[in-house]
Design brief:
The chain is mostly helical and 243 residues long. The protein has 10 helices and no strands.
Length: 243
């Protein structure tokens, strides 16, 4: 008589079956979210257009004399990135709550935090990353001093995912309120301020020849912490909103 599979082998087989299913669900969520973004590509371009328009107003308001915009360039770029990121927060879960897709996410066998993490990743890829890629052009328009573009890009690449993660939690807290109006920016902006301070502050420190790596390391540490906690917090807020 042949012996049946050992408990260890059975558990390993079960784990190998469950893990790919989570990956398949995450990939399906990713494809769905990207398809929705493509359908609403005009809406997805709004943050980029907003950032470009806001940045172009500063030379008109302050004047384009050499040296006037240079000290403010990094802060202006960061403010444009921050404000443009607020535009996409309202729609992060709103359409899903309206058409019943959010209930399907809550009932999915995959962890809700995983699906939320995919949604946040798509939000960053489609709203924040285009603005980050446009940052060198904005910095040139605002006369950012030579040698500071690398620090600015590093701060944006570390800070913009953090803004998306924080904003996703704020959006989840207001998803059950219908139209959140001004409440969502009021919740998100105080949490965005430290990211803005360290992001723009790292460039300001580098421009004065001071050590700037500490600010970037703080952004990196906060990003790692937010990658772990923000999807869990957003998932808990969504469950509470639909309890």
């Amino acid at each position: 008589m042949t012996a049946g599979p050992s408990p260890t082998a059975a558990s390993n087989a079960s784990a190998s079956i469950v893990a790919p299913s989570y990956r398949r669900i995450a990939m399906a969520q990713l494809k769905r979210d990207l398809a929705l973004v493509w359908v609403r590509r005009g809406q997805a371009l709004q943050p980029l257009l907003f950032a470009v328009m806001v940045a172009s107003l500063f030379p008109l308001a302050l004047g384009a004399e050499p040296g006037k915009l240079a000290p403010l360039a990094a802060g202006i770029v960061w403010v444009c990135v921050l404000l443009s990121g607020l535009l996409g927060l309202e729609a992060l879960y709103r359409s899903d709550a309206a058409d019943g897709s959010l209930e399907q996410m809550l009932l999915s066998p995959a962890p809700l935090a995983l699906l939320v993490a995919v949604r946040i990743g798509v939000h960053w890829l489609t709203t924040a990353l285009p603005v980050v890629l446009m940052a060198p052009l904005l910095a040139e328009m605002l006369q950012l001093p030579d040698g500071l573009l690398g620090v600015l890009m590093a701060s944006l690449l570390l800070g913009t995912p953090l803004l998306s993660l924080i904003g996703a939690v704020a959006a989840a807290l207001t998803v059950g309120l219908g139209r959140s109006g001004i409440l969502l920016p009021l919740l998100a902006l105080p949490l965005y301020v430290p990211v803005l301070v360290f992001g723009a502050g790292s460039v300001a420190a580098a421009s004065e020849g001071l050590p700037h790596a500490g600010a970037l390391l703080l952004l990196a540490g906060a990003l790692v912490l937010a990658l772990v906690l923000a999807p869990l917090a957003a998932a808990a807020a969504l469950r509470i909103a639909h309890a």
